[in-house]
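pls design
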């Protein structure tokens, strides 16, 4: 294993040309990178930033303290870990049906939806629906109940457990399940049970402007909100719910996301413990479930696809990770004892920029090749 100084220097030399080229090609205006490796000689970490946190309405340099809209990294790092706590406490079970989880009557077509199927993206629910277009005409205090009714009235695309489709709707329900079963708002439960024990309660947050934060990576110029978004959640459905939902809403900087991801690896490898969930249960959530043929999903986390994975071609097949729409991602490789976090503002100033799809696998392969 390389010494700390040479590890950071060599990794920087490896990724710097790739990232500078990506910025020049407008893959993203700016990026924060975090890498951690632990192979029995103590953990070595690398974090660095490049480029601009914002281009419009005025340029702003990226900093290590810059907070990113983590988008769908909310799913694994907030909602899934909250559900881990509730399963560990015996409040809910992985194969418990939706009616019991939500403590309400459910239509017959959805009676076979379970917690496991929601986490595994094989519930039969659709990928996405612009519910915000209806919710903005509803009193704010009634929007969550209205959303729940709307989701539960949505027709299923196929029977639960028969096909995998990545579903925001499923994670909207999972966020509501956390609230029903805990008696607390999702953000408060995540703060108290998941993040506070790790010293991250004020570093990974929902609604960061309300917490006094001011350094943000900008996202898109939103046509219907009439402004460039910075410190305000990009996801429209989450915004309509007040900035907190099971599928999006979490903000964080590179050091915080790297720390939490690295801590999960430490638990996975039996080198650390969380007070509210066990390593044994975390390993079950990290296991590819094989509930549906050709699905790569574990529980709340993805695993690398055999061909064309955003994690690249060198990552081990046991790895887990997730992507976020705003240009964020994390991957945890237990074979290499490696964590890679990539936070970008690729949707700034437009959501139509998809060049990151080519960049992600190149980046991950380049990092792994340097170790």
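designed seq:
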């Amino acid at each position: 294993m390389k010494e700390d100084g040479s590890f950071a220097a060599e990794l920087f030399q490896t990724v710097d040309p790739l990232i500078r080229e990506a910025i020049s090609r407008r893959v993203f205006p700016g990026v924060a990178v975090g890498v951690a490796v632990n192979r029995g000689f103590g953990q070595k970490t690398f974090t660095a930033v490049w480029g601009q946190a914002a281009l419009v309405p005025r340029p702003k340099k990226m900093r290590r303290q810059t907070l990113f809209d983590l988008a769908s990294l909310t799913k694994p790092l907030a909602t899934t870990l909250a559900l881990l706590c509730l399963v560990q406490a015996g409040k809910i079970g992985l194969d418990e049906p939706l009616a019991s989880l939500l403590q309400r009557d459910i239509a017959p077509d959805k009676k076979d939806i379970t917690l496991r199927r929601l986490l595994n993206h094989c519930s039969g629910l659709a990928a996405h629906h612009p519910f915000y277009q209806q919710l903005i005409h509803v009193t704010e205090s009634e929007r969550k109940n209205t959303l729940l009714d709307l989701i539960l009235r949505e027709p299923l695309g196929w029977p639960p457990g028969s096909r995998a489709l990545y579903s925001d709707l499923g994670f909207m329900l999972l966020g509501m399940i956390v609230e029903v079963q805990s008696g607390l708002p999702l953000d408060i439960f995540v703060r108290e049970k998941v993040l506070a024990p790790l010293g991250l309660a004020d570093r990974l947050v929902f609604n960061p402007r309300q917490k006094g934060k001011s350094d943000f990576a900008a996202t898109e110029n939103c046509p219907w909100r009439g402004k460039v978004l910075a410190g305000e959640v990009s996801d429209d459905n989450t915004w309509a719910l007040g900035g907190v939902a099971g599928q999006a809403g979490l903000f964080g900087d590179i050091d915080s996301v790297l720390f939490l991801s690295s801590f999960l690896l430490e638990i996975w490898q039996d080198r650390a413990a969380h007070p509210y969930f066990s390593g044994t249960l975390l390993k079950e959530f990290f296991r590819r479930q094989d509930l549906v043929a050709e699905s790569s999903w574990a529980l709340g986390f993805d695993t690398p696809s055999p061909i064309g994975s955003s994690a690249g071609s060198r990552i081990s097949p046991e790895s887990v990770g997730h992507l976020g729409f705003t240009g964020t991602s994390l991957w945890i490789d237990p074979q290499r004892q490696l964590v890679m976090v990539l936070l970008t503002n690729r949707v700034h100033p437009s959501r139509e920029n998809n060049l990151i799809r080519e960049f992600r696998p190149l980046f991950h392969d380049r990092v792994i090749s340097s170790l």
